[in-house]
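Structure (tokenized):
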């Protein structure tokens, strides 16, 4: 009886929460648990064999410097991986902010810039804190010089594309265009991460960790934006 009296205020508060709020909190809690679990597995070496097997399966057995598939595939993925580079992501962020300024959404533009910059800082801190070396079981098909976990391209793509997609979606007048923005952001995030594994510069778990951390940051930014930024009046025209 005493426990029920103590728990009742908490239950009442939860019952008043919106479904979107509950989903966001559950996603953040689950994603954080997955990321922490993944870091623990990596530090204990439990993922090493699986990581190596996947990297080896993407190369010719008789020549590990040659990736599987036609020559155009490696060329295409080499181009795609540039979409997760700091230069390209910075240009996309600045252009998106300019679009929002022209659309008279100065508050969203500033929030977007702060969100993406914050994600970059978190990515750098995680790399330094975990300090996982790059894979050396297969030759790298592009030059890399920093640490491996989490994948910077995967995380920064998730941070940038998902954050921009979510914030730009809020400025769209119809549900269809909002869904397109989110779908395009997810697609770009996925193909950039896949390219890093194919090119041999990251373990699959590096990319998974980058996706997880980036999605968590983007979801957190979306949640804060949803609570603090004003929606455009035109957003209610189509449901």
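Design, position by position:
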């Amino acid at each position: 009886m005493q426990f029920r009296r103590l728990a009742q205020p908490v239950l009442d508060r939860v019952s008043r929460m919106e479904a979107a709020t509950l989903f966001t909190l559950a996603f953040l809690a689950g994603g954080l648990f997955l990321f922490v679990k993944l870091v623990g597995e990596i530090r204990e070496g439990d993922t090493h064999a699986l990581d190596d097997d996947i990297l080896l399966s993407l190369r010719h057995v008789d020549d590990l410097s040659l990736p599987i598939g036609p020559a155009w595939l490696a060329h295409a993925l080499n181009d795609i991986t540039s979409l997760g580079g700091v230069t390209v992501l910075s240009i996309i962020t600045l252009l998106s902010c300019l679009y929002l300024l022209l659309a008279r959404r100065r508050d969203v533009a500033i929030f977007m810039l702060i969100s993406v910059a914050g994600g970059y800082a978190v990515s750098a801190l995680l790399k330094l804190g975990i300090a996982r070396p790059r894979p050396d079981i297969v030759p790298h098909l592009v030059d890399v010089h920093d640490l491996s976990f989490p994948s910077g391209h995967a995380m920064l793509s998730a941070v940038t594309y998902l954050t921009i997609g979510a914030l730009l979606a809020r400025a769209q007048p119809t549900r269809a265009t909002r869904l397109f923005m989110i779908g395009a952001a997810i697609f770009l995030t996925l193909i950039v991460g896949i390219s890093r594994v194919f090119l041999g510069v990251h373990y699959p778990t590096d990319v998974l960790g980058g996706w997880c951390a980036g999605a968590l940051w983007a979801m957190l930014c979306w949640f804060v934006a949803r609570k603090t930024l004003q929606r455009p009046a035109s957003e209610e025209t189509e449901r």
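Reviewer-requested clarification: Residues 78-231 form one domain. Confidence is low (pLDDT under 50) at residues 10-17, 233-239.
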